[in-house]
Amino acid sequence: MSRREQKSAKIEENRRFKQIQNDQRSNKNHSKIDDHRSLDVPLLSNNQSYLNEFEWLRIRLIQDYFTEAVKLNEITGISSYPSTQSIKSTLELFHMPIHITSMRLISYIKQINEFQQLKPEDQAYLIKLNLLTLCFFHLIFTYDPRTDLYYEPNTKDPHFSGKDWNKTLNKQFHIEMKQLRNDIIDIFQLDDIIIKLFLLIFIFSNQITLNQSSECVL
């Protein structure tokens, strides 16, 4: 056997060895997954839940409130889905996606019973304090990294290009926005219920920042 043939045989042997190792790891991982599933079965079979029926109803209402808020604040006068609306200045950025998002969030928050029970001056204080940051938080959940587009699902809203956000915002700020989105989605897994609850917790928070702890008004 020539040196070239010996080298080829050695490479093939190493490849097979790595494949065997990968197969063994895969089998172990499947075994662990099956073990976890078997542990979850008793919980599922017992229909155990940390929330009662009334609490689940409240959560479903929270989702419905946002749907209603979107219907009450539809975009008019610009391109509609699936068109892409260009943004050429910071003024247009605040006039279109951020403005419409803020109107929807205000309509959403005003439907929440706990918010209605606050004094008008406290309501105004919380909205003034947290609304802009809340808008950016909401918008990062509408961002699709595969297409680099922002779009509010289940609406006639146009797409907004991430490239326009780069031009009108500080580029580094936009990069940090997208990184924050990835970090949050790793936690929330795009669960709509958790996202809506997160937005509510945020609006009731006092002096919240990305670098400081916050206190809740309620």
Concise account of the structure shown:
The protein is mainly alpha-helical and 218 residues long. It has helices spanning 3-45, 53-72, 90-110, 113-116, 120-141, 162-168, 171-188, 192-203, and strands at residues 143-144, 149-150, 160-161, 205-206, 215-216. The protein folds into 2 domains: 1-48; 53-216, Retinoid X Receptor.
Account of the 3D structure:
- InterPro entries: NHR-like_dom_sf (IPR035500).
- Keywords: Receptor, Transcription, Transcription regulation.
- This protein folds into two domains: 48 residues; 164 residues, Orthogonal Bundle (Retinoid X Receptor).
- Helices cover 67% and strands 5% of the residues.
- The protein contains eight helices and five strands.
- The strands form two sheets. It has a three-stranded antiparallel beta sheet.
- The protein is globular, with a radius of gyration of 25 Å.
